[in-house]
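Long-time lurker. I teach an intro course on protein structure, and each term I like to show students one example going from raw sequence to a predicted 3D structure in token notation. This year I'd like something fresh instead of my usual example. Would anyone be willing to generate the tokens for the chain below so I can use it in lecture? Attribution to the forum is fine with me.
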Amino acid sequence: NAIFTLRLQFTLRRGIIGKNSREDEKMELRYTVIDPTKNITLLVTTPVPRDVQPRVAAELLRREGDAEQVGFAEGLAAGNPRLQMMGGEFCGNATMSMAAWLHRDLPIGESRALTLPVSGASEPVSCRVTHLDGCFIGTVSMPLPERMETLSLPVCGVRQSLPVVFLPGICHVIVPADMIGRDRAEDTLRAWGDLLPGEAMGLLLLDESQTAFTPLVYVKPTDSCVWERGCGSGSAAIGAWLTSVRGTDQCISLRQPGGVIQVVTRTEDGAHLTTLTITGTVCLGKTQKATVRL
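-- Reply from a regular --
Happy to contribute to a lecture. Here you go:
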């Protein structure tokens, strides 16, 4: 009995110590603050295990009040860069941001093309960046929509027929700007989380007459709901939807709270979408250090 008691005490103590050591574990990391059309993105360049990325992202968003999303640069040491977003979603602005960061030493006036594997996209994404004085111009060939549907979704207690664009890694619901106020949009989008697939979704308040929209994006793994000042995938979704509605190629400049993103689409016979690109500005900010508790 005495031996059993000693063994039990040792086992319990070891378990408690092990638990406490995990709770006290910390990680020192580096990240760069990047501004793609004011959609402030934190690009973490220190390797972070996938299973703790959502927690690390949530902590960084808490610390950096202006930040709207976090991406993790993987494979840098091996020379195989890949972008993993905080919730496993796809993001055009973050893709553009990492492309600019990878070519941060590019001489002013020069351009580079590259392909970049990105979470949520089944194939590497083609990008092109041009270094201007103080910023980059970036173009991303966006993954084409998997489908576009009109769905009946609840808005302020009333079912509304709304277009939904399903992009790889994220879906966007296009809502007329006068249908819902910002004060009720967040609860509405969270409620759609049980009705729509994927790890991320957006509610895009579109004023078509002004070629302008305001994006609200919800990422399930981090439970973050953010009014973004610029949304690359939202811009692509609206461009794809307008192409379908108007039945012709589009070249439009979509105004958002943080600036303008240009969308260009190409179709076969005015029907089948073959090309979908977004172009915007990217400004690289400071590189920061942080210690994050895991």
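Some talking points for your students: The helical segments are 2-23, 53-63, 92-102, 182-192, 232-246. The first strand starts at residue 26 and ends at 36.
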